[in-house]
Amino acid sequence: MKKLILLAALIFLAYNGTTRAGQIAQAPDIRLPEVPTPAERHAQAELAHFIQAMTGWSLDSPIESSPVIEIGRTEGNLAYLQTLNLPDERSALAGRDTYLVVHDGSTLRLCGANDRATLYATYAWLRLQGCRWYFPGELGQIIPQRTSLDLPDSPILSRPQFLVREIDKIQGHGVSDLEAMDWASRNGLNRQFSLHRKWSDASARGGQVLWHRLAHNYEWMLPVDEYFDEHPECYPLYHGRRIPLGMDRANICTTHPEVISTIASAAGAWYDRHTTGSLVPLSPPDGLIRWCECTDCSALGGKNFTPGPMGSMSRRHTTFVNAVARQLAETHPDRELLLLAYQNYQRPPAPLKLGPNIKVQVARTGDLLRPIDADTDMGQTMSAWSADGIWDYALLADGDATMPLPVARSLGESIQWMAEQGYSDYYFIQASTSIRHNPLAHYLIAQLTWDPRQSIDELIATFCTDLYGPAAEPMLAYWLFLEESARQSPWQPTFWRDLTHPPSSWLSPTVLAQLDDLLSQAEAAAPDGPFADRITLARDSYLTARDYVAPTLEPSLRPLTVTLPEPGTVQLSADDRPLLYPGDYLRSPSGRLGFSVCLDALPKDKGQIISLFSAGRKGTEGWLQLYLSADGQLGWLWTGSTHTEKPGEKPYYFHLHSPVEIATNQWHHIEIAWDQPAQHLSLRLDGKVLEQRDNASYSHHFWPSSIGIGCSTAALQTGRVQGQYRDLKIEHDTIQVFHSLWNDENLKVRSARLPVR
Predict the structure, then answer these.
(1) With 0-12 CB in 10 A as exposed, 13-18 as middle and 19+ as buried, what is 86?
(2) 629 vs 633: CA distance, rounded Å
(3) Reduced to 3 states, what is the DSSP secondary structure of residue 83?
(4) Among the ranges given (12-21, 210-219, 314-323, 342-351), the one the predictor scored with the smallest mean pLDDT
(5) What is the pTM of this model?
(6) Shortest CA distance to 613 belongs to which of 599, 633, 627?
(7) How far is Cα of residue 674 from the mean position of the Cα atoms in its chain?
């Protein structure tokens, strides 16, 4: 009873006044429970390590007069935890990570609702001493030199705002798996999916929030090897035949009763095996896949590879998840499912009604440079779902890992807005980029998902003061200008790959000069030591960006027209390679590409195609292709390759207008126009609009490393297929980002060189 009264008094003071608890002026005696867990032992080791690093004290031989620190579920700490009614590991996720740091007059107590929270309490007290972990590794940590250690003026009772806090894939690029896990636990994160198998090695770090995988998990719940041969009806009917489930291939039949019961049973069985598991996500394989075309599925709406509302699979998806949730509730009434709103099932159907045991996670789309709020399409989509959280792609890079990502403040402001709306989960940021080169964005996410009430300005200022010392002022200006200049530019990256492919419309000579000047000022202020080493990381990142846009900044650049001396000089044939041009032509949010073509022949075999134009990362096997099929029909192909389904079937369409036929031995003019900020995409043939998309997805933003004009590999495999180009003209409406042709090798067509004028 005495301890309960004392705790009540201390908590009263925490909210109504302060009391000075004093300081620790000698090596403490760090005590654990009689049978400590691996996490409690790790907390003791971490505390001893950082205390010794700060003070130089030896903690090996405490004496009777040593100050006492108790960690974890000691008898004394349990008395405090019990008064808070904190849940145990098997209860609801809310409250699990709550921790308490309190000095009761004789003992400093570091404890939490679970092992992970006990570690958080330990790091919270170390932060009180000035310790920080801004990015993984010794260079990213701040360990101040102290002659004494502060005790809290009042109890620190902290519960995170977001129940799930994840930044994934921070390992790599100079960061080990163990460093990634340590950085996450020291900054209050509680999940790293890509390292989930290695957390057995890291049970000392308190474990992580446990899900049934991440998402796209039907393959593990209805495995093809076990079910397809005997139960093909569980898989989608597509073009008259059942096809197996798999990445970039097919979904399940979401209306089949056996599928619903099998998935519900699989979810329940997983919860039985994992009593501390918090969530089972339900979502189809990744990407735009083939959905079932059986009568029951088709009755719910949605047409494969059709843009706009006609192609939405949201009603199918929600109907299926609701059906599974009802069955799961009968056997596991306290367990939940996660509905992922993604791809062509991102927008909710109307009317929307979800079971009480369903949580919704919305995959982010829209402008990645600017924060989510109620006025953005993303904010409205989340509100329409009554979402619980977001799957954020802003740090998922796909280019040079050291490229600077100007999104730190934007992410922080998005998190603060979501907290104000009551969202409880920041489920996932997949960060396959270099955290060492983009530490600010990662640090703000970790801090604000725990406590979004913190001032972003103050967090950034402290970040710069701690990491850069005497160079704090120019580095603060550098980080602020990096992001503000991007926001003020016309650049609107809407796909995660875009962020590591910055345009010269942002990184203009003026912006680059300003960034260079600020870094130079910082380097002069801190010429050596760890401050200088951290500035070098920023300098390396700047150089990556500068070199990337350098080809588009040459003073002699101009709109380019390539005119062939006479029709027939360039041929599409097995003897000649397709013409390749650099991706700088199309690295623009708005532009137009037009060319004339005369085809001598079409493919002989059904299922083969001629690729007239491709924009992508592998030349003619690109992400987006304009092609002709064997019957002379013009269409779009979006596959990342030129594969088709089976001979005799139609090609794998992505976004397809009503196809038209192109006759051979006649000249035709083809034009592609795009306006990515407004999400417009159009295709014209001989001046006539064949397709005009007013709701083109972010996937239509051209970001290739090269474009190809020529014959696809698939067509070449059928034998000699010829075609001729008369002219090629590339124009941009808003940004002039042109470059000379790729290189001499790709300029050679037979023995002729294309003149540029």
Answers:
(1) buried
(2) 5
(3) helix
(4) 12-21
(5) 0.79
(6) 627
(7) 25
pLDDT digits (tens, 9 = 90+) for 63-97: 888 999 999 999 999 988 887 666 554 444 556 79
Q: Is 80 exceeded by the pLDDT of residue 161?
A: yes
- The residue among 135, 127, 93 whose CA lies nearest residue 431 is 135
Whole-angstrom distance, CA of residue 27 vs CA of residue 54 = 11
Token pair of 27, please?
């090596």
Task: Annotate 519-574 with DSSP letters as a single string.
Answer: HHHHHHH--SHHHHHHHHHHHHHHHHHHHHHGGGG-TT---EEEE-SSTTSEE-ST
Cβ atoms within 10 Å of 566's Cβ, excluding its own: 8
Phi-psi region of 518 (alpha: psi -120 to 50; beta: other; left: phi over 0): alpha
> Span 467-479, mean pLDDT?
98
Mean pLDDT of 350-376: 94
What distance in Å separates the CA atoms of residue 641 and residue 327, rounded to the nearest whole number?
40
On whether the CB atoms of residues 435 and 136 are closer than 8 A, the answer is yes
Instruction: State how far the Cα of 637 lies from the Cα of 713, in Å rounded to an integer.
Output: 14
Q: Which helix (H) or strand (E) holds 142?
A: strand 141-142
Instruction: Give yes or no for a contact between 118 and 43, defined as CB atoms under 8 angstroms apart.
Output: yes
- Asked if pLDDT for residue 533 goes beyond 50, the answer is yes
Question: Which pLDDT score, from 0 to 100, does residue 210 have?
Answer: 87
Backbone angles phi, psi at 324, to 5 degrees: -65, -40
Residues 6 or more apart from 567 whose CB is under 8 A from it?
Answer: 598, 667, 724, 726
Is a pLDDT exceeding 90 seen at residue 359? Answer: yes
Residue 254 φ then ψ, to 5°? -80, -5
Query: pLDDT of 133-156, one tens digit each?
Result: 999 999 999 999 999 999 999 999
Largest separation between any pair of C-alpha atoms in the chain: 99
Identity of the highest mean pLDDT range in 350-359, 568-577, 747-756: 350-359
* Whole-number Cα distances in Å, 650 to 35, 287, 603, 613: 66, 19, 14, 19
CA distance 719 to 573: 9
**Tokens 């999104």 sit on residue:** 407
Tokens of 561: 């027209």
Dihedral sign computed on CA atoms, order 208, 211, 217, 219: positive
Residue pair 345/314 in contact by the 8 Å Cβ criterion:
yes
Distance CA 142, CA 73 (A): 29
Task: For residues 628 and 692, give the distance between their C-alpha atoms in angstroms, rounded to a whole number.
Answer: 19
DSSP string, 690-756: EEEESS--GGGS---SEEEES--HHHHTTS---EEEEEEEEE-SS-------S-HHHHEETTEE--B
The packing angle between helices 472-488 and 509-525, to 10°, is 170
Who contacts 233 (Cβ-Cβ below 8 Å, separation ≥6)? 242, 253, 256, 258
Find the helix or strand (DSSP H, E) in which 684 lies.
Answer: strand 680-685
- pLDDT tens string 188-243: 999 988 887 765 556 788 888 889 988 899 999 999 999 999 999 999 999 899 99
| The pLDDT of residue 671 is above 60 | yes
Q: Name the percent of the chain lying above pLDDT 90.
A: 53
Residue 125 pLDDT > 70, yes or no? yes
The answer to whether 248 touches 181, Cβ cutoff 8 Å, is no
Please state, rounded to an integer, the average pLDDT across all residues of the chain: 78
**560 to each of 596, 732, 738, how far by Cα in Å?**
16, 10, 7
Q: Of the given ranges (407-421, 434-448, 588-602), which has the lowest mean pLDDT? A: 588-602
What pLDDT sits at residue 504?
A: 79
Cα dihedral 103, 104, 107, 108 in deg (nearest 10): -20
Residue among 438, 562, 555, 560 nearest 500 (CA)? 438
Q: What is the radius of gyration, based on Cα positions, of the chain?
A: 30
